[in-house]
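SAMPLE LOG
Freezer: B-3
Tube label: C17
Construct: single chain, 384 aa
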Amino acid sequence: MRNPSDPSACSKPSNKCRSLDRPDVSAASSSLDPAWRRFTTRGESSADTESTAGITLSMPRPLVCIVTPALAGANNGNWQTAKRWSQMLRTHYRVELLDRWQGEPSDVLVALHARRSSESIARWSRDKPRSPLAVVLTGTDLYRDIHVDPGAQRSLELADRLIVLHELAVADLPVQHQAKAVACLQSTSTRLELVKTRQHLRCIMVGHLREEKAPQTYFAAARKLVHRSDILFDHIGEALDPTLGEKARKLAHECPRYRWLGALPHETTRGRIQSAHVLVHTSRIEGGAHVVMEAICSGTPVLATRIAGNVGMLGVDYQGYLEPADGDGLAILIERCRDQPDFLRELRDQCAARAPLFEPARERTKLLAVLRDLLGTDTSARCQ
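STRUCTURE (predicted):
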């Protein structure tokens, strides 16, 4: 399965690719290849031991490289996924987090974003054809890029496994790629539901201001309900689209109960989600939003667009859907949340029923199973 000349290769043989020979156990440990020595010294608890003929060899744990085009500074969902997965995998693997792969030693590549990581995916497939490759598909991948972008389409072809992030996403892939896809729902910690004031209803929308998140729908609902002094609108996110940022500033000036708070630290944002009465999620393209599961696991009901990425998290029978770009429909749902306590309670109960899907232990078990499967994958289709 691995290239014998590749120092990062795994020792598990493939039935079609030449296997890696074990190190000569009759040699002193000082004669081990320098690359293997480097692997055994990187990271905490990075190696297991094997004793043969009275000599103890340090056997490195497999090294997983996670490539995400968004690192910590981006403060977005892709970064949160990469960070969380690296923490979950460290008990079994050594893990590197990179924004691109440029030949660094690794046994398996997990690349977030078929289009934006397409160069790393292509290089890995070219340079390490015997080493397994997983591609994690975001919402823009699933519902836009894989249909129009050659780089994203090539990433689907090269991947040994495709990882999607909500229940309906496998069926949304091209038929020829569905067999190598697996759904791995993301997770978050559970927070206690707070007792919230009855003096007003506080809505919150979380997402950087860009076209895919469709903040114009939220803007329209705020304008529609400007006469309601008992309904407040908070908005968290950086203006990645300057035009949308200008619209948010103008709305805040014209509608005093709309507040654009800009980008906030993740922990602060979670606290604001927890204290809000309802999270509003107006995306027109979504692969499985962090903020939706964070609201669910904080006791905060959700109003969301009826798109696959949201339905795959909230369920087909959820009562809090609006159609994409329907600002008037959103305003009606928000008023129902304020004026009909039973409706808000029903949404909260439906969210609570979905919360177990997003438990960290569940995601970790699934992720480890995917990695075990990957490291046993026959990659001979890419060895030719």
